[in-house]
Each structure stands twice: as structure tokens, then as C-alpha cells.
Write a structure and sequence with these properties.
The protein is mainly alpha-helical. It is built from four helices and no strands. The longest helix is centred in the middle third of the chain and has 27 residues, at 59-85. The radius of gyration is 15 Å and the shape is elongated. The two termini are 18 Å apart.
Length: 122
């Protein structure tokens, strides 16, 4: 299986791209703070999923990269909360993005709890 076929990868990539598009409308003064942080954390979710899959030969590395991905996902949720509080996004957009982030989190946890289904020798 190619890592691009992983549902967690696809969903997290989709979330990162939605965040990228939405943050284009954020104020310019947020360029090096909120915009940069939320884009980095959302992209890190996806890249850590890729890295975990590539390291599936080593169970501890697989789990470690997935827990990194989970942490980045939680960070992304916090930046979304700041975006809502600063009124850069509305409640509907926030709810949609958080829902997708929670779904990604569930998929990451599934991978952590079922490493054998992803080629990890347990």
C-alpha cells in the first residue's frame, strides 16, 4: 500500500489544504504568527503520518511518529480556536475544520492501536 492511500493521510492533507485556503484571508499582521503556525502544524500532521508509515518496519518509530502527528493535530485545533476568537473564521467554518481534525485524530489513534493492519510486525 502506498502512504497516499491511507485514509488518515488523505483526510489530514485535505484539512491542511482547507486551512491554507482559509488563512489566505487572515490579516497580513498574522503572517509570521498565526498563519505560519497553523499552516505548519496542519502540514506536520500529514508529514508525520507519512513518516510513520515509512518507518513501519520499526514498531516504536511507527508509534512515535503517529503520536507526533496526534500532537500536531491538537496544536492545529488550538490555532483554530485562536482563529475563531480573533474572528478570522466564523463558527460554521470552525465547526467544519474541528470536525475534520477530530476525524483525523480518530484515524491516527486507529493506526496507533492497530499497527499490524499497517504492516508493522508486532
Amino acid at each position: 500500500m502506498d502512504f497516499k492511500n491511507l485514509l488518515a493521510y488523505k483526510k489530514s492533507f485535505d484539512l491542511a489544504m482547507k486551512i491554507f485556503e482559509i488563512t489566505k484571508s487572515f490579516p497580513k499582521e498574522e503572517k509570521y504568527s498565526l498563519i505560519d503556525q497553523i499552516r505548519r502544524s496542519s502540514r506536520s500532521v500529514t508529514t508525520n503520518i507519512l513518516e510513520s508509515y515509512r518507518k513501519r518496519k520499526y514498531p516504536k518509530h511507527f508509534t512515535s511518529k503517529l503520536t507526533d502527528s496526534d500532537s500536531e493535530n491538537a496544536e492545529t485545533q488550538t490555532w483554530l480556536e485562536f482563529s475563531l476568537a480573533c474572528k478570522y473564521i466564523d463558527q460554521k467554518t470552525f465547526d467544519e475544520l474541528i470536525s475534520l481534525s477530530l476525524e483525523v485524530g480518530n484515524l491516527i489513534h486507529y493506526m496507533i492501536n492497530n499497527p499490524g493492519k499497517f504492516g508493522v510486525k508486532v
